[in-house]
Write a structure and sequence with these properties.
single chain, mainly alpha, elongated
Protein backbone atom coordinates (compact mmCIF):
# COMPACT_ATOMS: atom_id res chain seq x y z
CA UNK A 1 0.00 0.00 0.00
CA UNK A 2 1.33 3.44 -0.89
CA UNK A 3 2.05 5.75 2.03
CA UNK A 4 -0.43 8.50 2.57
CA UNK A 5 0.91 12.05 3.00
CA UNK A 6 1.36 13.04 6.65
CA UNK A 7 -1.30 15.09 8.37
CA UNK A 8 -0.81 18.58 9.71
CA UNK A 9 -1.84 19.26 13.30
CA UNK A 10 -5.01 21.02 12.11
CA UNK A 11 -5.89 18.20 9.70
CA UNK A 12 -5.45 15.68 12.52
CA UNK A 13 -7.77 17.75 14.70
CA UNK A 14 -10.46 17.72 12.01
CA UNK A 15 -9.99 14.00 11.34
CA UNK A 16 -10.32 13.17 15.04
CA UNK A 17 -13.64 15.02 15.16
CA UNK A 18 -14.95 13.02 12.20
CA UNK A 19 -13.72 9.78 13.79
CA UNK A 20 -15.40 10.64 17.09
CA UNK A 21 -18.72 11.47 15.40
CA UNK A 22 -18.53 8.54 12.96
CA UNK A 23 -19.51 10.83 10.12
CA UNK A 24 -19.81 14.59 9.92
CA UNK A 25 -20.57 17.52 7.69
CA UNK A 26 -18.30 20.55 7.46
CA UNK A 27 -20.67 22.42 9.75
CA UNK A 28 -20.55 19.69 12.41
CA UNK A 29 -16.74 19.68 12.37
CA UNK A 30 -16.66 23.48 12.41
CA UNK A 31 -18.97 23.56 15.45
CA UNK A 32 -16.89 20.94 17.29
CA UNK A 33 -13.68 22.96 17.03
CA UNK A 34 -13.11 25.17 20.09
CA UNK A 35 -14.08 28.79 19.44
CA UNK A 36 -10.71 30.03 20.71
CA UNK A 37 -9.11 28.43 17.64
CA UNK A 38 -10.85 31.15 15.59
CA UNK A 39 -11.08 29.07 12.43
CA UNK A 40 -13.56 30.06 9.80
CA UNK A 41 -15.93 27.69 8.03
CA UNK A 42 -14.00 27.70 4.74
CA UNK A 43 -10.76 26.76 6.51
CA UNK A 44 -12.44 23.73 8.07
CA UNK A 45 -13.89 22.87 4.67
CA UNK A 46 -10.36 23.04 3.19
CA UNK A 47 -9.01 20.71 5.90
CA UNK A 48 -11.73 18.14 5.15
CA UNK A 49 -11.09 18.35 1.41
CA UNK A 50 -7.37 17.82 2.02
CA UNK A 51 -8.12 14.81 4.24
CA UNK A 52 -10.22 13.34 1.46
CA UNK A 53 -7.54 14.05 -1.16
CA UNK A 54 -4.86 12.46 1.05
CA UNK A 55 -7.00 9.33 1.44
CA UNK A 56 -7.88 9.63 5.14
CA UNK A 57 -11.58 10.46 4.72
CA UNK A 58 -14.27 9.72 2.16
CA UNK A 59 -17.07 12.07 1.25
CA UNK A 60 -20.60 11.15 0.23
CA UNK A 61 -23.12 13.62 -1.04
CA UNK A 62 -26.40 13.78 0.86
CA UNK A 63 -28.60 16.29 -0.82
CA UNK A 64 -26.57 19.47 -1.01
CA UNK A 65 -24.12 18.49 1.75
CA UNK A 66 -21.01 16.36 1.81
CA UNK A 67 -20.81 13.93 4.70
CA UNK A 68 -17.32 12.81 5.66
CA UNK A 69 -16.37 9.49 7.25
CA UNK A 70 -13.17 7.55 7.87
CA UNK A 71 -11.59 5.94 4.86
CA UNK A 72 -8.75 4.56 6.97
CA UNK A 73 -9.20 3.04 10.40
CA UNK A 74 -8.20 5.65 13.00
CA UNK A 75 -6.00 3.14 14.85
CA UNK A 76 -4.04 2.63 11.62
CA UNK A 77 -3.50 6.39 11.29
CA UNK A 78 -2.33 6.60 14.91
CA UNK A 79 0.04 3.67 14.34
CA UNK A 80 1.54 5.30 11.23
CA UNK A 81 1.81 8.71 12.91
CA UNK A 82 3.58 7.31 15.99
CA UNK A 83 5.94 5.25 13.80
CA UNK A 84 6.78 8.38 11.82
CA UNK A 85 7.39 10.34 15.04
CA UNK A 86 9.67 7.65 16.50
CA UNK A 87 11.61 7.42 13.23
CA UNK A 88 12.03 11.17 12.80
CA UNK A 89 12.72 12.22 16.39
CA UNK A 90 14.29 9.14 17.93
CA UNK A 91 15.96 7.45 14.94
CA UNK A 92 13.55 4.53 15.27
CA UNK A 93 14.45 3.86 18.92
CA UNK A 94 11.52 3.47 21.32
CA UNK A 95 13.42 3.68 24.64
CA UNK A 96 14.23 7.43 24.24
CA UNK A 97 10.54 8.06 23.51
CA UNK A 98 9.49 6.09 26.59
CA UNK A 99 12.11 7.91 28.66
CA UNK A 100 10.68 11.24 27.51
CA UNK A 101 7.12 10.17 28.28
CA UNK A 102 7.98 8.78 31.71
CA UNK A 103 10.44 11.45 32.91
CA UNK A 104 9.36 14.63 31.17
CA UNK A 105 5.59 14.14 31.11
CA UNK A 106 5.49 13.07 34.78
CA UNK A 107 3.16 10.11 34.49
CA UNK A 108 0.90 9.36 37.42
CA UNK A 109 1.03 6.43 39.82
CA UNK A 110 -1.99 4.91 38.07
CA UNK A 111 -0.23 5.19 34.70
CA UNK A 112 2.88 3.53 36.17
CA UNK A 113 0.70 0.67 37.46
CA UNK A 114 -0.87 0.24 34.00
CA UNK A 115 2.59 0.34 32.39
CA UNK A 116 3.76 -2.43 34.74
CA UNK A 117 0.73 -4.50 33.75
CA UNK A 118 1.55 -4.06 30.07
CA UNK A 119 5.18 -5.06 30.62
CA UNK A 120 4.09 -8.12 32.62
CA UNK A 121 1.72 -9.12 29.81
CA UNK A 122 4.48 -8.72 27.23
CA UNK A 123 6.76 -10.91 29.33
CA UNK A 124 3.98 -13.45 29.89
CA UNK A 125 3.94 -12.97 33.62
CA UNK A 126 0.69 -13.31 35.56
CA UNK A 127 -0.46 -10.05 37.11
CA UNK A 128 -1.04 -9.98 40.86
Amino acid sequence: MARRPALSKAEMEAARIVWKLGEATVRQVFQAIPAERKLDFTTVQTYLRRLEAKGYLRAKRRGRMLVYSARVDPSRVIHETVDDLVNRLFDGETIPLLHHLIRDRLISGEEIRRLREMIDQLEGKPHE
